[in-house]
Amino acid sequence: MCECALPGPMAAVPAAQEPEPWEKQRFGLGLRLGSLGLSQGEGSEQTYGTAGIAARYRLTRRWELELALDHGTEQREDGSAGLRELNSSTLSALFHLRPQARWDLYLLAGVGSSERRFSDRERWDEAVPHVALGLGLERRFEHLVLGVELRALVQPPVIREDIAEPAVDTAATSVRRQEQEAGGGQVTLSASWYF
User: Are 91 and 110 spatial neighbours (Cβ–Cβ below 8 Å)?
Assistant: First the structure.
């Protein structure tokens, strides 16, 4: 005689939930090329051709952090390179309006700093803080993301100390000058790889 136990009610085992695409690819590294225009006061405008790198981290489905480092060289109206150079770094928060869609729109807000110099000098000017606001459009592939971005930049007025060379044989004097608030815009093309 067989003593077989009848099967009791079986507990349902939940199926393992597949992680969302953004959870599989939280980190992104990218290259950036762009054009930056800055105006400072009346009649003082410079245009820089920029190149840089960016690192991104996806916090949630919609929110992402980005650290962008750019180097720029002044571009004159005739297409030749000017004497000014610029380094900037910006930490931004990105809000994705269509997360994980093939075509994604995002808004950004960031803070950072930039420093300038003339290319024939070794010394960079003191770093000046800036605020960035903008929007971007991205085309997503499996791991590759191509994008275009528009940013508005604002820098507060700064006080610089210059050494004035005297006309007569006396000690050089230090002159303090206040620069007006600077602002401008930046257009950037980017290619990022997410992993």
Answer: yes
Number of separate domains in the chain: 1
Domain that holds residue 89: 22-194
Q: Residue 168's domain is classified under what CATH number? A: 2.40.160.20
132, 118 in Cβ contact below 8 A?
Answer: no
Which whole-number Å values give the CA distances from 77 to 74, 84, 111, 152, 153, in the listed order?
10, 14, 29, 21, 21
Residue 64 lies in a domain: yes
Each residue of 155-193: pLDDT tens digit?
Answer: 988 665 554 444 555 554 555 555 667 889 999 999 999
pTM of the model: 0.79
* Identity at 81, one-letter amino acid code: A
pLDDT tens for 102-139 read 999 999 999 999 999 998 888 898 899 999 999 999 99
> Three-state SS across the chain?
CCCCCCCCCCCCCCCCCCCCHHHHCCEEEEEEEEEEEEEECCCCEEEEEEEEEEEEEECCCCEEEEEEEEEEEEECCCCCEEEEEEEEEEEEEEEECCCCCCEEEEEEEEEEEEEEEECCCCCCCCCEEEEEEEEEEEEECCCEEEEEEEEEEEECCEEEEEEECCCCCCCCEEEEEEECCEEEEEEEEEEEEEC
